[in-house]
Specification:
The complex is a heterodimer of chains A (about 425) and B (about 240). With about 425 residues, chain A is α+β, with helices and mostly antiparallel strands. Helix content of chain A is about 55%, strand content about 15%. Chain A has two domains: about 180 residues, no CATH class; about 220 residues, no CATH class. Chain A is elongated. Chain B has one domain: P-loop containing nucleotide triphosphate hydrolases (Rossmann fold). Chain B has seven helices and ten strands. The chains are: A alpha+beta (about 425), B alpha/beta (about 240). At the A-B interface, helix 1, helix 11 and helix 12 of A face helix 1 and helix 2 of B. Magnesium ion (MG) binds next to helix 1 of chain B.
Chain lengths: ~425, ~240
């Protein structure tokens, strides 16, 4: 087997140009599939309910873009529980979105800052993945949160965002509000999210109380209410342990007399994101069921083409191998092995390159959907690359390999002499 | 040597090919026996079925009917896979156009059939070096076929044919593509294989001078082989 593999590698050297072109074709297509799958994978993760961690989102019932008044906050944190029979959520986080630009005359990307206004002490438990940091990173995150508690205008910024804005930890910035038009706020960057929390590279959080304080000061100073300040809360996020509690809590909130204007609705964290993504549904469907298969089929054809040319060219050589005693199965192994070696090696290289290129060099695939605007290639893409390369190469070469297997020696050498 | 036990026995073999709807009968009830250690030449006009017969004896094809025995093996009844395994150990094949693998060096080409047998790397190496030494190419181990002359390539082909130490060596026009001098060297080498290593050799040739090297020459006749004709003549080498 090892000896046959050596022979495969030697065969690949035969036509270096073709091998390289096939490998390059494979790499480009694996790059495309990997990128598409990364987006889909991210979306799937977002919309999947974690089994022991049910999140409820309370938002405006009738308007997906609607906001909730501040007066709802206290009771929402308790899940609208009043009697002792009522379910009380295990945890909560209030979400508002404050976005703006550092330079109102220039609205370029590096000037734009988007902040999640929330209770920062809730970040480790309520933001996905932040409960899975290593000890050192957890300690650092907790220290940063502690700073934010002492310093209302403190923010934690994603490290990529920090780099993009060309700022440093400890720096001060003034943001000219866009989501809250007219509300300009000053911030101090107290720290970044740990790098190991990859998906928070572009996320920044601020104290929600600081946002509220800003709104109050605006109202007092201007003797009129900031229009967007009346209902600043995007949604309240609650956490319960199981589906049963989730359902009781949802009913309790929806039926509560506290929330009438506007009325609220409850959804699971996953389904909330799904609703949010509903308008993109067709695109995701197309990516999953049209684009990915199309790329995979193309890839198989690229490999099938290269391998069948190579098999046709080598009919005589295959016949010689058979004369020497190579069995049909071994001949097939040689051809399949040749294809799969190109496929798997270039798939792996391509995935590794994609991870480096997209994550490190470009800084994510820029598809601004909902509050995530960039997608990153997960490490598991290395396995995808290997798998895609291997499987498409197998499918692409199975027919040529089968025909090589069936090469009849007597026919190849049937020359009247 | 003359009375040695037959290593090749072909009994009433028929072979036909179908081209579209047309049936071409190539061999019709041919029988043949080759004693162990003989150097046999097959001669005959083009299309007389020499290659077809050689392929049946070498286990590259199976007869339409009749039996082919090599030693105690009835190879005409073997499956393709069984034949492949059998060929590795029992037959060495020498081609007119050498058919070396262009990407492999002389050494690697000779090593190729040994990859199918289980043996230690050391033994494999020993065998390859011995075979190449025997054909006088010890100084060309790492040359590719493209870097060798026709005669040298055919020597590599012969080394590849003998490296598994088969009892039977078949050659289809081994000198057909060579100049007179190289052809003579190759034939001399084959004579040595037969005399010194006691190999049984069956060689198809067009060249009467080549046939003179053989202990016996069989003449196949008639392009279509409508009738089986078998003429043999014994010639001293
Ligand atoms: N694989 C094959 N398929 C069809 N016809 C064949 C095949 N091999 C040989 N023949 C035919 O059989 C006849 C004998 O061929 P062959 O044995 O190669 O002759 P020779 O080697 O004596 O010149 C020819 O007519 C040839 O066309
Ligand atoms: Mg012939």
């Amino acid at each position: 087997m090892f000896q046959l593999t050596r022979l495969i590698i030697k065969n690949l050297r035969r036509n270096v140009l073709r091998t390289v072109l096939t490998a390059l074709g494979t790499m480009v297509l694996v790059l495309a599939v990997t990128s598409v799958w990364s987006v889909l994978d991210f979306i799937d993760n977002q919309t999947a309910d974690k089994a022991n961690d049910f999140k409820i989102l309370i938002s405006d019932k009738n308007n997906a873009q609607g906001r909730l008044p501040r007066s709802y906050m206290e009771s929402m944190r308790r899940g609208a529980a009043r009697g002792s029979d009522d379910v009380v959520p295990d945890d909560y986080m209030t979400w508002a979105f404050y976005g703006g630009t550092l330079d109102p005359t220039k609205s370029s990307r590096e000037n734009f800052l988007f902040l999640i206004a929330c209770e920062p002490e809730k970040a480790p438990t309520m933001l996905d993945d932040l409960d899975q940091l290593g000890t050192a990173d957890t300690a650092r995150l907790n220290a940063a949160i502690e700073k934010m508690r002492k310093q209302p205008n403190g923010i934690i910024m994603g490290h990529e965002q920090l780099k993009l804005m060309n700022k440093e930890v400890g720096g001060r910035i003034t943001v000219n509000g866009l989501t809250f038009k007219g509300l300009n706020l000053e911030f101090e960057i107290v720290d970044t999210f740990p790098k190991s929390a990859q998906r928070y590279g572009q996320t920044s959080i601020m104290n929600i109380e600081y946002l509220f304080q800003g709104i109050d000061e605006y109202d007092a100073k201007n003797k009129t209410k900031l229009a967007s300040g009346v209902a600043p809360i995007a949604f309240e996020m609650l956490k319960v342990k199981n589906r049963q509690d989730y359902e009781r809590l949802a009913a309790q909130i929806v039926n509560s007399p506290l929330y009438t204007s506007p009325a609220v609705r409850c959804e699971s964290g996953g389904s909330a994101v799904s609703t949010f993504l509903a308008s993109w549904k067709d695109i995701f469907w197309g990516m999953r069921w049209l684009l990915s298969p199309a790329i995979l089929v193309t890839l198989s054809l690229v490999i099938a083409n290269a391998i069948s040319i190579s098999v046709r060219e080598r009919h005589q050589e295959i016949a010689v191998l058979k004369v020497l005693g190579f069995r049909p199965g071994q001949v097939m192994f040689l051809i399949l092995g040749e294809a799969m070696l190109i496929g798997m090696v270039s798939g792996l290289i391509s995935a590794g390159f994609t991870i480096l290129f997209v994550n490190k060099f470009v800084g994510g695939i820029p598809i601004p959907i909902a509050w995530f605007d960039r997608f990153f290639i997960p490490q598991v893409a290395l396995l995808w690359g290997l798998g895609i390369g291997g499987v498409t190469a197998f499918l692409g070469s199975i027919l040529p390999a089968w025909s090589a297997r069936g090469v009849r020696v007597a026919d190849v050498f049937a020359k009247v002499t | 040597m003359a009375e040695a036990e037959a290593i090749v026995r072909v009994n009433g073999v028929h072979k036909y090919f179908t081209r579209g709807s047309e049936r071409v009968d190539v061999l019709q009830g041919l029988s043949l026996s080759v004693p162990n250690g003989e150097f046999l030449a097959l001669m005959g006009p083009s299309g007389s079925g020499k290659t077809t017969l050689l392929n049946l004896i070498a286990g590259l094809d199976t007869p339409s009917s009749g039996e082919v025995w090599i030693g105690s093996d009835l190879i005409s009844k073997m499956s393709e896979s069984q034949l492949a395994t059998w060929r590795t150990r029992n037959v060495g094949f020498i081609f007119q156009f050498y058919h070396l693998l262009a990407v492999l060096t002389a050494y690697e080409n000779v090593e190729l059939p040994l990859l199918l047998l289980s043996m230690s790397a050391a033994e494999r190496k020993q065998r390859v070096l011995t075979a190449l030494d025997l054909v006088g190419l010890s100084d060309r181990l790492h040359h590719r076929p493209g870097q060798l002359s026709g005669g040298q390539q055919q020597r590599v082909g012969i080394a590849r044919a003998i490296v598994t130490d088969p009892t039977l060596i078949v050659a289809d026009e081994p000198t057909g593509d060579l100049d007179a001098k190289s052809a003579d060297d190759i034939l001399h080498l084959m004579g040595e294989l037969q005399r010194e290593l006691q190999k049984t050799i069956i060689m198809v040739t067009h060249d009467p001078k080549a046939a003179e090297r053989a202990g016996r020459t069989l003449h196949l006749e008639k392009g279509k082989l409508v009738h089986e004709e078998r003429r043999s003549k014994a010639t001293a080498s």
